[in-house]
Amino acid sequence: MLVKRLLLAVISIAFGVATTWGIVLLIGTTPGEYGGAYFTFTALTLAIALGIWLDKFMATEILPK
User: Fold this and answer.
1) pLDDT value at residue 65
2) How far apart (Å, rounded) are the C-alpha atoms in residues 22 and 25?
């Protein structure tokens, strides 16, 4: 169970960072211009959103039923 939860966290964080990086480049700016705090919070938000879905499909039971 611990391995599944760690895998969920790694996938979610990687997705959040990669998606945020893509969004920042898509709007034509750099992460420095976008801002470190904004980049972090955007990546965190996307990672949590994916983590909720992955929790259901991977059956890690991090969230209560």
Assistant:
1) 78
2) 5
